[in-house]
Amino acid sequence: MNAIVQNDQAPVLQVTDLEIEINGGQGSFAVVSEMNLHVRAGETLCIVGESGCGKSMTALALLRLLPDAAKVASGKILIDGQDFMAMSERQVEDYRGEKIAMIFQEPLTALNPVLRIGEQIAEAVRQHRKCSRKEAYAKAVETLQLVQMPDPERRAGQFPHELSGGMRQRAMIALALACDPKIIIADEPTTALDVTIQAQILGLISTCKSVSARRKSSSPTTSASSPRSPIG
Amino acid sequence: MQPDATPLLSVDNLEVHFPIRAGVLQRQVGAVKAVDGVSFSLNRGETLSLVGESGCGKSTTGLALMGLVKPTGGTVNFDGQEIRDFNRSALKSYRRRMQIVFQDPFSSLNPRQRVKDIIRAPLDIHKVGTKAERDDRVAELMQRVGLRPDQADNFAHQFSGGQRQRIGIARALALNPDVIVCDEPVSALDVSVQAQILNLLSDLQRDLGVSFLSISHDLGVVEFISHRVAVMYLGKIVEIAPKTLIFGHPTHPYTELLMRSAPSHDPRRRHQFSATNDDIPSATRKPSGCPFHTRCPLATEVCKTVEPALTARPEGQLVACHHR
Amino acid sequence: MLAYVVRRLLLLIPMAIGMVVVTFGLLLLIPGDPAAVLLGQDATPEAITNLRNTLGLNDPWFIRLWDYFAALLQGDMGRSIFQNQPVATIIAGRLGATIELAVVALILATLIGLTLGVLAAIRQGSWIDTVTMLFAQIGVSMPVYWLGLLLMLLFAVQLGWLPAIGRGVPLHEALFAAVTGRPQVLWDSLTHMALPALALAANSAAIISRLVRASMLEVLREDFVRTAYAKGLRKGRVVVRHALRNALLPVLSVIGLRFGALLGGAVITESIFAWPGLGQLTIAAISQRDLPLIQGIVLTFAIVYALVNLVVDLLYAAVDPRIRLG
Amino acid sequence: MQLPKALRNTSLVLGLFITLAIIFCAVFAPYVATHGVEQMDMRNRFEGPTFEHIIGTDNFGRDLWSRLVFGARISLTIAVISVVCSALIGTVVGLAAGYFGGWVDQLLMRITDVFLGFPAIVLALAIVAVLGPGVLNVSFAIIVVAWTEYARVVRSTTLVLREQNYVQAARALGASPVRILFREILPNALGPIIVLASLGLGTAIISESALSFLGFGLPPPTPTWGWTLAYGTKFMRDAPWLSIISGATIMITVLGFNLLGDGLRDVLDPRQLSRGGAKASKAK
């Protein structure tokens, strides 16, 4: 399937010789080393491996959101040709959500329990677009519609715990899509879901891909039944 | 090995309802029908898998059979003996012959106990043999499940997930039970380790003739270990059939959805059949009629009002559907 | 929601009955003849007989308990042995001052505790964190009476900035005076309030700051905070809007519990700073072994505390959408 | 392997150091003290720190250091008695309420609420007032209030532990409630109990000295810390060190137990409980 996409343009994401270290009790050790990858517009790349192999660490490093104990020891991350590792914290904040967004594994814990779904999405829109509160909220509802959230107006006004697992993951995807990012990282987007819902979410991710063009996804392998990825 | 045909365990119309209370006086205003009239039987040396998505009541069924959750209705017949009242004394002998292996190998072993004490506990509780005999039995069991006897003094946290699950299996085997309930025994493990544990389980079945009631949402695991499969949806069994039929010719629309949703490496097999509505009803607000009608592509008026009964089909499966 | 409030209020009834039984049980604990013990060694036999009659000691205990309940239902807490006034009247005259002190201390403790806790959490491991937690650790270990004495010694005796003892005009009246053009009245009330409130608040401020820090640190590690950063939000916004709101939830319930501790602490603070509240009255009543008064005070404290906790639980439900009362 | 890790915990080491020092003073009081408790020295009244009286004397010329050392005995005795008793009562109540649930839980927790509803010091004062002073009476007054804390914590720990699969496994094996409570649950609930007990020693010392400060503790001439502090306030202008030093002694002792409790909390790591659960939910 990948052959269908013509990949003659420059990669939107390029990672060279990435090394991630974790600072444990007895010195530091590398969880990821000599990682090289590139993703062109419209392409999906899957990172596969068993738990603890460094998939999630790589994903977090791409957003410069590694936990305190971990750090990028060496290597380069280029987003749209810009050196992401060299940017100031301010620039990184401008890139997050706008150029590179992420779908997290556990939608229940990844969404703020005390804020309404619509507010959480609108907040991302307002961060990157000059627009009023109202416009941002309208954009949020629109994005929820895009991810086929049933009854998006009503759902936007609800809290995460009021939604089912599948709907939460749709909200999570809407959150990632809200600012039309160039790259989307999906860290095991369906492991927390039931099989019938998994199928729908994976279907949705491939649909959204054709709608908004470009993303990247890492995929689950921890369960025997699901070594599959949305290779659109 | 071929399972024996006389049922060892038969479950008839098992119900587990949890009350929902509200108001000033906390009166019961409804019930969560976690298990709502489940019937099946299990033969000697057979593996029956209960499959379904989270919240369908498969785990509750297992817990109810173990007496860990009190059933609100139904009967259980174990080797000719009827268990109606699930109180402690009635369960005592039954519990020697029926054991459970839990999903989570981390929380199923007491972190403050040594492995030998964990495996010995069933022998101590039922006062089997002398102290020396119990020690010998522990060593034998550890060997049986592939643990080294010199690990007996270690604590659970010193083991990997797979090894912990072996400890849990050894504990379940200690009293030579006839039936072991396996509640998602491998879902918390990495793929490569899953295979080892599944192989261990089938070796044990071959050598000891033990029956397994396996509870799983992972169709790969189910296909590997089952003789028969029961598909559950919202507290009810919608289809029971031999494994080959379930995987080859799923009859109930829900079974079909489940099979089609299962990840596959073949892109052509995907999304031929899909339910659009992911607002899955819960056991608290169960739909009228056929519980699956809100998501079923075949649903008609009759499905909304009349609940289909589990009836036999010519190929040998039992299905609860008006249209198939 | 309404059903929940009603149920909670109904649950107060058995609790209040339990509390009455416990306070009443105090009388039964007294070894020997309570009347003789209460009046002390140089009491005349007539006085003892009189007291036996007023306390109804000649009846069996369950009849006395019943009588006590029956009277309580009519708002009658009995008469003080030594002050020759109804207990309810005496308490009513003092309750306001204590609640005022406890509320001001609670506000003070919450403000200090929140600020320090949040600062320490977002600068975890820095010198601010170390210093704050050191202060908190000392604050938790400091006996309120000792801190009160030190404060008095420093600010009243040595520096002479603040009055050592007594109370100004009640705060609500002082506020009224201030808006009608007499700000010095409010100033006077506040200077009297400063030392006792600070002494009383210190312990709670320390506890709250430690809790806020722990709670913040935990929330800052949550997935949704990472999501907020992944959206591109600025750090300040993530801390205030996403982390703090969630971190405050467990803190809220502790603030309710602290109110009980503050009421208790007020007993000691009031006796040091001669604050004319319920605490001072408690000490007096206990020194005189004025049992009906003691019973009344203990019961009053308990009821105020129970009501405060009800309010806190309702607030909690209002702030956390996940909690549905019913 | 665990020891060096524990010893790297500053709170624990410092707390252990302070509490051991104070326990040492209390146990070997006759040897640590430089003077008799009641030994008066009328020529050296209100003396500041000197070679003879290292932290000074009171209005009768009694040596403050020696009085504080003997005071430690009383404070620690009362603290230990009250903490052991309240921990025992609270643990039994908490285990029963948490494990059996239903009406047992309702009843026990309503009773706990009743005792928790009284401000601690007020109830303690009232009890001492009617019972009269004495080591056991003061301990009793502290226990009446303190046991509720253990009951609540042990109950909520038990509620979590009860759902752990290893407890379910024991039930599936047909283990009796007694075996489950004492073999499976209690060993895992000990961490929080030990932490609470350590913090409770500090609280008990504060409560005891508060009672003494208010004049309801052990009667003079018993050299309790609280009484020495209260008595010192009379001589605030001439000999402020009396109050300041006895107050500091109380604070440092309480600080020691608090540091010890916090350190133990870090080392015993109550989150150990949830670690398995967190892993399971992730893996699902």
UniProtKB/TrEMBL annotation, chain B:
Origin: domain of life: Bacteria
Location of the protein in the cell: Cell inner membrane
Domain ABC transporter: 20-259
A GO BP annotation: peptide transport
The keyword Transport is assigned to this record: yes
Region listing for Disordered, in residue ranges: 264-286
Pfam family, one: ABC_tran
Coiled-coil residue windows: none
Homology family: Belongs to the ABC transporter superfamily.
PANTHER family: D,D-DIPEPTIDE TRANSPORT ATP-BINDING PROTEIN DDPF-RELATED, TRANSPORT ATP-BINDING PROTEIN
NCBIfam families (alphabetical): oligo_HPY
Listed name of the protein: ATP-binding cassette domain-containing protein
Organism: Devosia aurantiaca
TrEMBL record, chain C:
ABC transmembrane type-1 domain boundaries: 95-316
Membrane topology field: Multi-pass membrane protein
SUPFAM superfamilies xref list: MetI-like
Pfam families cross-referenced by the UniProt entry: BPD_transp_1 (PF00528), BPD_transp_1_N (PF19300)
Biological processes annotated in GO: transmembrane transport
Transmembrane segments: 9-30, 101-122, 134-161, 193-212, 247-273, 293-319
Location relative to the cell: Cell membrane
Highest taxon in the source lineage: Bacteria
Cellular compartments per GO CC: plasma membrane
Record key words, sorted: Cell membrane, Membrane, Transmembrane, Transmembrane helix, Transport
Annotated Gene3D superfamilies: MetI-like
Family: Belongs to the binding-protein-dependent transport system permease family.
Record-given protein name: ABC transporter permease
Automatic annotation (TrEMBL), chain D:
Location in or out of the cell: Cell membrane
Keyword annotations of the record: Cell membrane, Membrane, Peptide transport, Protein transport, Transmembrane, Transmembrane helix, Transport
Single GO biological process annotation from the record: transmembrane transport
Annotated transmembrane regions: 12-33, 76-100, 120-147, 189-219, 239-261
Pfam families given in the database record: BPD_transp_1, OppC_N
Record-linked CDD domains: TM_PBP2 (cd06261)
Organism domain of life: Bacteria
Protein name: ABC transporter permease
Phylogenetic placement of the source organism: Bacteria, Pseudomonadati, Pseudomonadota, Alphaproteobacteria, Hyphomicrobiales
